[in-house]
Amino acid sequence: MKKMPTVLGIVLGIILLAILGFAVYKFYFAKNSTNSNSETGFSYLNATYTIDGSKVTLKNGLSEIPAAPGSASKIITRYFGNEVRADFNGDGREDIAFLLTQQTGGTGTFYYVVAALNTVNGYAGSEGFFLGDRIAPQTTEIDSGKTALGTNRQNVIVVNYAVRMPGEPFSIQPSLGKSIWLKLDPVTMKFGEVAQNFEGESK
User: Fold this and answer.
1) C-alpha span between 64 and 54 (Å, rounded)
2) Which pTM value belongs to this model?
3) How far apart are CA 95 and CA 115, in angstroms?
4) pLDDT (tens digit, 9 = 90+) per residue, 113-122?
5) Structural domain boundaries of the chain?
6) Which terminus of the chain has fewer CB atoms gathered within 10 Å of its CB, N or C?
7) Do 156 and 138 touch, CB atoms closer than 8 A?
8) Strands 190-193 vs 176-185: parallel, antiparallel or unpaired
9) What is the pLDDT of residues 128-166, one digit of tens each?
10) Gap between the Cα atoms of 71 and 84, Å rounded
11) Which of the four pLDDT bands, split at 50, 70 and 90, describes residue 69?
């Protein structure tokens, strides 16, 4: 009879230790999961995009990598802005598209359109669509209507920007307005240009 309290105490002690261990594990796991998520795409500013065939992973909207092994020159990829939001893949989640700039060590500043799909596993970055060098971005919009001919142009991204006149040097400020219509293929994660004509038709 005297052994019962001892056995019961041991069992209760094991249960309490198990509960405490589980609580510590959950706290540690949650803390480290949060830190990991911020590095692996749970923000579109920390996602990975493809620029000219190379993977670029942003950290708080910025990537700096050596232009070549041992080189002091860096390839700098940076979040620019001009965000638009829409459900690009029809999964009920709001996705985002925006502009990135990239400097490769020379005088050029190259502009790209990218998108990030908001998935259950985090943001999946697209391949960048090249707009131009040292352009002047204006506005970016979503065109989700239909043409007069009934052609569906849902979630078409309209990027408005200015370029230089043919033959003008880069020292001249861009002044020629230009618009491009883009649509993301959520399977290939690439943008395709949407054709347009004077009747407003998109194909």
Assistant:
1) 13
2) 0.74
3) 8
4) 999 999 999 9
5) 40-193
6) N
7) no
8) antiparallel
9) 999 999 999 999 999 866 544 445 578 999 999 999 999
10) 36
11) confident
The tokens describing 147, both together, are 């043409």
Q: Cα angle at 174 between 170 and 176, to 5 degrees?
A: 130
- Given a cut of 50, whether residue 26 has pLDDT beyond it is no
Q: How far is CA 52 from CA 41, 45, 114, in A?
A: 20, 19, 12
> DSSP states of the chain as a string?
-THHHHHHHHHHHHHHHHHHHHHHHHHHHHHHHHHHHHHTTSSGGG-EEEETTEEEE-BTTEEEEESSTT-S-EEEEEEEEEEEEE-SSSSSS-EEEEEEEEE-SSS--EEEEEEEEEETTEEEE-B-EEEEES-EEEEEEEE--B-TT--B-TTEEEEEEEEPPTT--TTSPP-EEEEEEEEEETTTTEEEEPPB-TT--B-
Q: What angle do CA 80, 135, 53 make, to 5 degrees?
A: 65
Q: What pLDDT does residue 72 have?
A: 84
Distance CA 73, CA 52 (A): 18
Which residues does residue 180 pair with via DSSP β-bridges, in sequence order?
159
